[in-house]
Amino acid sequence: MTFAYPVPPTKQAANSATFITPPIDGSMSIPQMIDFHLANNPNHPVFRFATSGSSEAPFEEFLWRNVGQAMHRAARLAQARILGTPSNHTNSTTTPVIAAFASVELVHFSTFMYGVSRGGYLVHLISPQLSPAVIAHLFLKTDVTHVFVDESFRGLVKSVVDELQKAEAAIIPVVLDFPAVDDLFVRDDHQFEALPPIKSIELDSAAIILDSSGTTSLPKPIYITHRRLVEWSRVIWHGDRDLCGEVVGMQSALPFYVWGNFCIISALTGGYICAVRSPFGKPPPMTPERFIGEVAVTQCTILVSAPPSMLEAWANDPSALATLSKLKAVVFGGVFLREDVGAALSANAVPLTPIYGLTEAGCLSTYIPYPAEWDFFEFSSQIPTYLKPVENQAGLFEVFLLSSSVWSPQVLNTEINGKPAYATKDLVAQHPTNPNKYKIVGRLNDQLVFATGMKLNPLAVELQVKASPLVKSALVFGEGRATIGILIEPVGLVDNADPEALSAFREAIWKTIDNANETLIIYGHIRIAKEMVLVTSPSKPFLYTDKGSVKRPLVLKLYAEEIEAAYAAGNLP
């Protein structure tokens, strides 16, 4: 007997005249839902984007008729090019693994890649921001057989192939042309022929591959199964709202990360409209002004892809604040938002809503809840968790995700009470009055342990220092010591070998450091002394993950000599 997921609590599309929800009981996979929508919801909008200034209409929409047909065309196109090109992938019993690199917008890229998946292939979604060596490492790990590429990334892919040939890889991927948007979205195509129906899909087989970007090592490929994608699609049904028909701003979501894919999958089962950038032509670079303009033009009701850098700019823009305050929710996550920015936006009636998720597990918090306190979230009722108290830090917990019959993380690396679980290494602080609410405060391996055994979470200090317009990034150090310091990557060039230049920079940011020191009162005498403010060298910039997080252990190792020298010069413990 096939297992059926139980009916979730929050019905979607309860009053929609254009959207029938697909079954989410485990009887239908995500690729099969594409065919379901093409047959049952042809007139329901999927994507909305701003039109050019010459158009009378402010925005254009792709309906499921357009998107479903485009995905089928993508599948046929991929099949024709893959089968029609010689390859050194000779094992006919394994599914070809397909990657793609193209300088196109989300609607174009995701339509093609989900179409490739509909065609029966395994897609590996890889960030083009990674180096050729790292991409080659991922290709080797997952045996990528074919890669679709447009002109803008041919140089990158050539470098990747060169790396593979140097490594004498068993499989050198075939390079194919990424299709133009007009090859997928064909207007008034009376000759359209759908693919044959999918007979069945083994839910525990791999559907897509995403990469988990760690701060201590190379990215790790995570094989996401069809079962996990179905479970991700059900998170929206455990939220507070019926989101069908809402216009959800995804203008900055990226198609090769978990968040962009989670949002699209949720639209498949919830029926909301994804507001994205136009797939036609080359949209100009996204600025805070252009971003908020597209939110207004596409008549977004919710914004789910608001980078902290944009929120920081909007906090000082009355026009942007007026637009944001009219939305039902402004969702942020992935990178920490400064306390002063969050407080300012909240004070201006911007309905900020934090979200928490992982590549290994999808979205873990209630999806687009009714906003309350801007910096706290609740875990989704679908997600079984174990929160392990952090020793000697009241109200601080390490997050473990448990496996159950209705939900499981894709990766299991430990046990809790004899049952399989995933140790996230994320730390959350419990709300002072509501025990069901939490905020992310950092990572377990970010914590500094002093010589006394006392622990310090450096994130609050680092965020305050980064508030300075002179500071690009900052890392607190002091593991195993009795005093701490801070390593700063400046926005401009500062010669750290010139004592006068270094002293001038320290003076310029000292008020910011002094304010950060105020947050350290609870740690007794711990303070950042002026001589313990170190500045990076241009020849040794900070190392970042492709998502923009600092690779803390690697950077601190890179500057180990300078840090030791600072302690010795000040005769500090």
Automatic annotation (TrEMBL):
Protein species of origin: Botryobasidium botryosum (strain FD-172 SS1)
Entry keywords, A to Z: Phosphopantetheine, Phosphoprotein
Name this polypeptide is given: AMP-dependent synthetase/ligase domain-containing protein
InterPro entries: Adenylate-forming_Reductase, AMP-binding_CS, AMP-dep_synth/lig_dom, ANL_N_sf
Domain AMP-dependent synthetase/ligase residues, every copy: 106-372
Gene3D superfamilies: N-terminal domain of ligase-like
Keyword flag Phosphoprotein: yes
Domain of life: Eukaryota
